[in-house]
Design goal:
With 313 residues, the protein is of the alpha/beta class. The protein contains ten helices and twelve strands. The chain has a single domain, classed as Aldolase class I (TIM Barrel), CATH 3.20.20.70. Bound molecules: phosphoenolpyruvate (PEP) and manganese (II) ion.
């Protein structure tokens, strides 16, 4: 068994460091006591779909997800609505006051997504797209970094380190299942990695049981297990008409099941001294180092300086 690399300078949870709090928009914080739930469709399909999603999930989830640039396995599959989809996401967010999460697949997509969405997702397939990570490091947006299809925990932490070393400390890690020999589930949800990451890094860690399981009937139980083992949040796919989802239909929950799932994690969160964040979280301005002692904050600042110097060479 290997120990973790000493190259993880900024993301490491050194003694005294509490979990960093990362803001999504101006009302939601990941990494504090409340467990944050992000819900929504795999893909933004049209304005009506997003309106129904927001109306039904408001009060249950803290943020809405929806891809407009989709990393599809086949080049012939729908690739996402692009900027038109971003506008839909943005108007839904303005109207309902719900922050949004969307994926960026290339450096060119960053500016528009950063302008119109609240959190930028790096999908599994791009976890080691180092140019993308560096460019995201130059933004101030919170980044949702998903674990690569077969990335080790260390590789994931080093990917986070890229973003942080280039100047953006606002990284949230996401375990979304890894490739294994068994194809019954789409991937294997690695809850061991969640527990390990919580010990290795001060960055918040959330879980995506949708892409891990690939089957809707497995998702609620996996979500509850994720909360029980210390995840700081969940990101889950759901759709007004799950079977009609243009992508990932087999794993999409109905909106009713999504609301029920959020209710069902509340006692689990309470049992481990946490709560579940609603969409009406108080408006708070939070920086990533808030909540840690001043000595730890100083140490973190120093490490950031050292790492930036190293990056500049
Ligand atoms: C997604 O979130 O829709 C997605 C494509 O996720 P992943 O990169 O984890 O496969
Ligand atoms: Mn998906």
């Amino acid at each position: 068994m290997s120990e973790i690399s000493n190259q993880i300078k900024l993301a490491a949870r050194t003694e005294g460091l509490q979990t960093s709090e990362v803001s999504i928009g101006d009302s939601v914080t990941v990494g504090g006591k409340p467990v944050v739930v992000i819900g929504g469709p795999c893909t933004v399909e049209n304005a009506e779909q997003m309106e129904i999603v927001a109306t039904k999930l408001k009060g249950s989830v803290s943020a809405i997800r929806g891809g407009v640039h989709k990393p599809r396995t086949s080049p012939y599959a729908f690739q996402g609505m692009g900027e038109e989809g971003l506008d839909i996401l943005n108007s839904m967010s303005q109207k309902h006051g719900l922050p949004t999460v969307t994926e960026v697949m290339s450096v060119e997509q960053i500016a528009a997504c950063a302008e119109k969405a609240d959190m930028l997702q790096v999908g599994s397939r791009n976890m080691q797209n180092f140019e993308l990570l560096k460019a995201l490091g130059k933004t101030t947006k919170p980044i949702l970094l998903k674990r690569g299809l077969s990335a080790t925990i260390e590789e994931m932490l080093l990917a986070a380190e890229y973003i942080m070393a280039h100047g953006n400390p606002n990284v949230v890690l996401c375990e979304r299942g890894i490739r294994s020999f068994d194809t019954f589930t789409r991937n294997v949800l690695d809850l061991g990695a969640v527990v390990a990451l919580k010990q290795l890094t001060h960055l918040p860690v959330i879980v995506d049981p949708s892409h891990a399981a690939g089957k809707r009937e497995l998702i609620a139980d996996l979500a509850r297990a994720a909360v029980a083992c210390g995840a700081d949040g969940l990101i889950i796919e759901c759709h007004p008409e799950p079977e009609k989802s243009v992508s990932d239909a087999r794993q999409a929950l109905s909106l009713e099941d999504m609301v029920e799932l959020v209710e069902s994690i509340k006692p689990i969160a309470a049992a481990i001294g946490r709560s579940v964040a609603g969409d009406v979280a108080k408006k708070r301005q939070i920086t990533v180092v808030q909540g840690i002692g001043s000595q730890s904050a100083q140490r973190l600042t120093l490490r950031r300086k050292v790492a930036r110097k190293a990056v500049r060479g």
